[in-house]
Amino acid sequence: MGDHFEKGQQALLNEGEENEMEIFGYRTQSCRKTLCLAGSIFSFGILPLVFYWRPAWHVWANCIPCSLQEADVVLLRTTDEFQTYSWKKVVWICLSALNSAFQLIPDHPLITDEEYIINRAIRKPDLKVRCIKVQKIRYVWNNLEGQFQKIGSLEDWLSSAKIHVKFGSGLTTEEQEIRRLICGPNTIDVEITPIWKLLIKEVLNPFYIFQLFSVCLWFSEDYKEYAFAIIIMSIISIALTVYDLREQSVKLHHLVESHNSITVSVCEKKAGVQELESRFLVPGDLLILTGNKAQMPCDAILLDGSCVVDEGMLTGESIPVTKTPLPKMDSSVPWKTQSEADYKRHVLFCGTEVIQARGACSGTVKAVVLQTGFNTAKGDLVRSILYPKPMNFKLYRDAIMFLLCLVGTATIGMIYTLCVYVLSGEPPEEVVKKALDVITIAVPPALPAALTTGIIYAQRRLKKRGIFCISPQRINVCGQLNLVCFDKTGTLTRDGLDLWGVVPCDRSGFQEVHNFASGKALPWGPLYAAMASCHSLILLDGTIHGDPLDLKMFEATTWEMVVSGHDFHIKGAPACAMVVKPCKPASQVPVAGIAILHQFPFSSALQRMTVIAQEMGGDWLAFMKGAPERVASFCQPETVPTSFVSELQIYTTQGFRVIGLAYKKLEMDHHTTAFMRDQVESDLIFLGLLIFENRLKEETKPALEELISARIRTVMITGDNLQTAITVARKSGMVSESQKVILIEANETTESSSASISWQLVEEKKHIAYRNQDNYINIREEVSDNSREGSYHFALSGKSFQVISQHFGSLLPKILINGTIFARMSPGQKSSLVEEFQKLDYFVGMCGDGANDCGEASVASPFTSKTPNIECVPHLIKEGRAALVTSFCMFKYMALYSMIQYVGVLLLYWETNSLSNYQFLFQDLAITTLIGVTMNLNGAYSKLVPFRPAGRLISPPLLLSVILNILLSLAMHIVGFILVQRQPWYSMGMHSICTVQNETTSKLTISPTAPDKIGSNGVFTSFENTTIWFLGTINCIIVALVFSKGKPFRQPTYTNYIFVLVLVIQLSVCLFILFADIPELYRRLDLLCTPVLWRVYIVIMLGSNFIVSLVVEEAIIENRALWMIIKRCFGYQSKSQYRIWQRALANDPSWPPINQTSYSDMPACGRGVSYSNPVFESNEEQL
């Protein structure tokens, strides 16, 4: 149901976005609702429970499909691989409530203007709006377009001119009221979830419902002790979970509550500036920002003035960011795409702190509200915490299959039980109890609890190492990582940059390098002025704050920073302009200072920043700073030295970070804000190069060597220069000295040619014109044989990556197989690259030191380390592997434990007998529960081995291990069951053979045909019962020892002292019970004494079972070499995409292409090859 819909009955919500959903229209039907209500009553609440677990069934049962326009209920289904369902009621908003404030009629100008979504949502003439609320976001029905659309933000199609004209002077009171009612309050409300709600939600988990069923059954069978034990464990588990969830809810509430109670100044069209609470803000309101520090209560577009903002709350990097006003352009292009620069530089994000607000000519700083509530950047971050993206890891899907297999096995056992007990003429209630018992035996209720303990222990060990985890389930995924991407600056290299020197240049070329360590002052000139003024530093409480690189550059000038107006004022400059000036008036510096009038801030995408400055009483100047190749491309060609490439090469090959500087004089007939960026950034004069030293962290090389030796791919993704990145990759060991680096350069389509891609081997010098952007690299013409054997790495820039993605789609996977160095990558490109690696079935980790390293993904990254280096990565992978192996050990153990008990009980059912309550209790509580708690305590092994643990429960070794051990246990139980019946003393019909041998005890004989029943559940003492119980109980201990894996992923079992001690005590107790002739003990456990020889036979059977099981596990299951031989014999090859490509490329003599250039219109370079994206689904051939 739900898949066959006519037009208008279904649509897409948030099309193309990460939270895209399908939406289906339904109308509630009274007769269906009545039937469902009756079903709920007659099923004693089971039907509502099923509807709670399956929301789609609730809608299908209560409603009939209809168009979305008529729907009073909508069914939502996510478009990802999980296809998660939810449903929402459609509610009505009545604008008639506003009539008391002002007369609102259907032909009111505010209603009839249908340019905006808000107006299109109002249904006339009754002035109502249909809406739904999904994951805290409100959607309204657009009557004109016939679809639900997000509300609470300005429309994306608005041009900058439209924003300035429509919202530049504020909204009227009427507009504010209408928007307030439809968009809702500007609040990020995270309610503190009541404990009773959390409790009900946790208790209604299918696992706890099954436990409730089990407990009720056990109470009916008088199996109270274990029932109480399970109840106590469940209560503790539920209490801890509810406490944890409550704590998180309280923390999140306190984190965001301050956002909802901020007083702001808003400019209204007629009423002027008003003070009001931030919760009343609506999209389109005009905010007036003062010079004081302030938290942003919404997302807003800066229209006038400039702001310095601390975005640490969003990015994790507390470096002040300068925001510039949105330029008013005549174009009708949407404001976000009107320039090549990132639109975010005009946006003040919710939750960030405005440190400084400086007005332009008007003296006030104005910003129009862009988004409110949960639509904002902060709201989106909070929503990502409230509604985390589900994780698709095959282990968890396999676990469901595993449970279904156990349910299937239980069903077979139920049928067998029904047949045996019905044919034996047992009472119906006894038959039902015994049949239901089989389910609780085959599907152990303690399974989920046992599985989570391994992850909890791993999380604790990580915490001790300073690694914190907000998503514990991802620890297991870390065990499968086979590719780790690293940022360079601050991650592989040290945080601090030291200004090593500067290389000035003039018309004759580069001059001698000026080394700051010499103590000699740099001569005054435009280069000196650029170093003093071309930055985004700010003065806050007498202290200079800003980017570390800018700080180092400015400190080298020994100048100071002041704000204009304190002790002097520059004519024509804003009153609060930032001014830099020499600390002491010196004869060699002919200017009193430089005022920084306007900034075009640095952007990762543009790789540059520019300032407009004015010398005191002198000219207006424009200074540019950025990537040398980018800066050079904006300069007059004759001002760029001919030795530019070779000079840059000298420093980048040594791993220095190089920055280019340029300037030009500006005409003074404009106001600074009237200058367009492309106007300023043209025909510049190249000034020279700044050389920064950025050393590797001491821990980088050993950590990378450890990963590489474990055959975990390492990839560098950086925003820095390509040659610097190649050098760092070589120094860090990411690329060894014997391996070659092949440079890939891709260029966009031009008027004269289509998009091209070229391949060059990096080695010897070869000049490339500086306008080819980023690729100032030494090239070697010839190819060594090594490069054809796979010992090569590809290096490319973000620009080339973008061109390849667009024009050479079929080459992208081939390049990624050996792509190691990606330079000049923007945050968006970093995220795209990680996704492309995932499409190749790699399990990818990204390690960086801030949000710039992988877009907004790092804001809520699952792991955060206190250790400021990459040592944490191998530790995390080790713990992940240990946790994964632990999960498999527990799965196998719990499967065997349930199957051992299942086999034993079914054999006893043959004689309409079973295990007694105390016998069950001993196995369940004294043996299995203790093993489940202590078996997971093994720590991670200290060394990373060059292969990963199996990623799936249904992998052949694991399946074979479980099946063989089940068969061994089955054989042993059947042998014991049959052999005991053939013993000469069996037919004596004795309660206990001990009574024959012990003359002080009277003989008690009974008729074999009338066994003595004990208890109310039809269990009677018998030699079969005694034999089966001893075999099963001790076998559980044996299986735990056999399955407890140590090396190569976990510490050896003998280091888990508690576990070993538990096993020794358990085995000792079992052997004591077996060989002790204590009638009272036997009576309590419902056992019969047997001859000593038979007890020896039991020990021999168990010993044989242990030896065979251990040999099978070590010689077959854990024998990697054997499995590799089997794979080769059967011709098995990994189905992982990257393995398929590796095999294809290994057999391709033309790969990699060297000294070649291909074009996108050539047949071999089209987009003909596509590949799927089964992320996290890897049938990895573990090599």
Condensed summary:
By secondary structure, the chain is an alpha+beta fold. Helices cover 39% and strands 19% of the residues. Strand 41 (1013-1014) and strand 42 (1019-1020) form a beta hairpin.
Overview of this protein structure:
The chain is globular. Strand 30 and strand 31 (620-626) form a beta hairpin. It has 36 helices and 43 strands. Strands 22, 23, 24, 27, 28, 29, 30, 31, 32 and 33 form a 10-stranded antiparallel sheet that branches. By secondary structure, it is α+β, with helices and mostly antiparallel strands.
List keywords for this structure.
1183 residues; alpha+beta; 10-stranded antiparallel beta sheet; 36 helices; disordered C terminus
List the helices and strands and how they pair.
Blueprint: E1 10-13, E2 21-28, H1 30-42, H2 46-53, H3 55-62, E3 63-65, E4 73-78, E5 85-89, E6 91-94, H4 109-112, H5 117-120, E7 128-134, E8 137-142, E9 147-150, H6 160-167, H7 173-183, H8 195-203, H9 206-220, H10 224-257, E10 263-268, E11 272-277, E12 286-289, E13 294-295, E14 299-304, E15 306-310, H11 312-315, E16 320-323, E17 347-348, E18 353-358, E19 365-371, H12 377-386, H13 394-423, H14 428-442, H15 447-464, E20 467-469, H16 474-478, E21 483-486, E22 498-506, E23 509-510, E24 514-515, H17 526-533, E25 538-540, E26 543-545, H18 548-555, E27 559-563, E28 578-582, E29 594-603, E30 608-615, E31 620-626, H19 628-633, H20 644-652, E32 657-666, H21 677-680, E33 685-693, H22 700-709, E34 713-717, H23 722-732, E35 740-747, E36 756-761, E37 792-797, H24 798-807, H25 812-818, E38 819-823, H26 827-839, E39 844-847, E40 863-865, H27 872-909, H28 917-934, H29 956-981, H30 994-997, E41 1013-1014, E42 1019-1020, H31 1023-1043, H32 1057-1075, H33 1079-1084, H34 1092-1117, H35 1120-1129, H36 1137-1146, E43 1156-1159
Parallel strand pairs: 21-34, 21-39, 34-38, 35-37, 37-38
Antiparallel strand pairs: 1-2, 2-3, 2-4, 4-5, 6-7, 7-8, 8-9, 10-11, 10-12, 12-19, 13-18, 14-17, 14-19, 15-16, 15-18, 20-40, 22-23, 22-24, 22-33, 25-26, 27-28, 28-29, 29-30, 30-31, 31-32, 32-33, 35-36, 36-43, 41-42
